[in-house]
Amino acid sequence: MGLVESWGGNAIGWFFAHLIEAFYNFFYAIFNPGLWLSWVPTINGPMETEQKEALMRFIYYGASVELFFVVLVAFLIVTTIGVINNRFMWGCVRGLEGFANVVGRVAAWAGLLMVLQQIVIIFMQRVFAVAEISIGFGATFSKDVSWWSEELKFYNAMIVCLCAAYTFVQGGHVRVDLVYSAISFRAKRVIDMLGSMIFMVPGALVIWLYGWFFMWRHLVVPNPSASDTLDRLLTKARALRWNIETIGFSPNGFNAYFLFKVLLVVFTLMILLQAVAFFYRSYLEWNEGPESEGKYLDKDVLGDPTAETVAKIH
């Protein structure tokens, strides 16, 4: 549209120009998906020039100012509707918290899988002295014992990255309380709103900016950089090819370390969504008063009075 170039002489003009252009950018991307998604069918395969350029556009816009303002506009629209209609905002809270709970509860089973796999590794290695473990019915998946041992780190990463938002919903993160407990209910909610916008969102955005390009540098070559312009990335697209990281720390060790980079991006996205959910919940509880505290909150029932008390302390 050219508004940023026309109005971008000062910070205010730059900001509002990007806000206005966000509508155009969103609908342009929706109605021209081939310009940034045509690479999807060719994952880890050969690509035509158009697909290479589409992938470079996807990489560039995935951590761009344009995407930030599209998301910001969407947030402002949803928030405005929610302020007018609190029932709609409660629906957003329930949806976002429900998503965090479902993902977290499923990912938490990786802890059990990790323990069982460790037991099998020790048993097979020490008792039967095998060098390889196979799993499957009919078609088997066979890897060296060291591969299965190193894979345990991936389960740890899954629990950390996919359960962080879930733990936040459940109130499981440890807090350092200096003044929070001594202030009024509504003052607490104001602090919660400010905390979600001043600390959670900026922190997650910084991780996203680093994590996004960190992930792609382990998936394609030539390596994209956060400092590259779109034109420079499109120039690099001529030599673009998939180069998914499959190098382990040991010769026969776990060779899918690119998944850790993917988890970092997923973790950041879930934290951003949870920050929005927490902001909305805090606003609604501030607006509706103490009787709305914990409204629609889907917390786990621990079934142990001591554990319940500890959870409340956190």
TrEMBL record:
<dbReference type="Pfam" id="PF04290">
    <property type="entry name" value="DctQ"/>
</dbReference>
<dbReference type="GO" id="GO:0022857">
    <property type="term" value="F:transmembrane transporter activity"/>
</dbReference>
<feature type="transmembrane region" description="Helical">
    <location>
        <begin position="106"/>
        <end position="124"/>
    </location>
</feature>
<comment type="subunit">
    <text>The complex comprises the extracytoplasmic solute receptor protein and the two transmembrane proteins.</text>
</comment>
<keyword id="KW-1003">Cell membrane</keyword>
<feature type="transmembrane region" description="Helical">
    <location>
        <begin position="258"/>
        <end position="280"/>
    </location>
</feature>
<comment type="similarity">
    <text>Belongs to the TRAP transporter small permease family.</text>
</comment>
<dbReference type="InterPro" id="IPR055348">
    <property type="entry name" value="DctQ"/>
</dbReference>
<comment type="function">
    <text>Part of the tripartite ATP-independent periplasmic (TRAP) transport system.</text>
</comment>
<feature type="domain" description="Tripartite ATP-independent periplasmic transporters DctQ component">
    <location>
        <begin position="141"/>
        <end position="212"/>
    </location>
</feature>
<keyword id="KW-0997">Cell inner membrane</keyword>
<keyword id="KW-0813">Transport</keyword>
<protein>
    <recommendedName>
        <fullName>TRAP transporter small permease protein</fullName>
    </recommendedName>
</protein>
<feature type="transmembrane region" description="Helical">
    <location>
        <begin position="12"/>
        <end position="31"/>
    </location>
</feature>
<feature type="transmembrane region" description="Helical">
    <location>
        <begin position="190"/>
        <end position="213"/>
    </location>
</feature>
<feature type="transmembrane region" description="Helical">
    <location>
        <begin position="58"/>
        <end position="85"/>
    </location>
</feature>
<dbReference type="GO" id="GO:0005886">
    <property type="term" value="C:plasma membrane"/>
</dbReference>
<keyword id="KW-0812">Transmembrane</keyword>
<keyword id="KW-1133">Transmembrane helix</keyword>
<keyword id="KW-0472">Membrane</keyword>
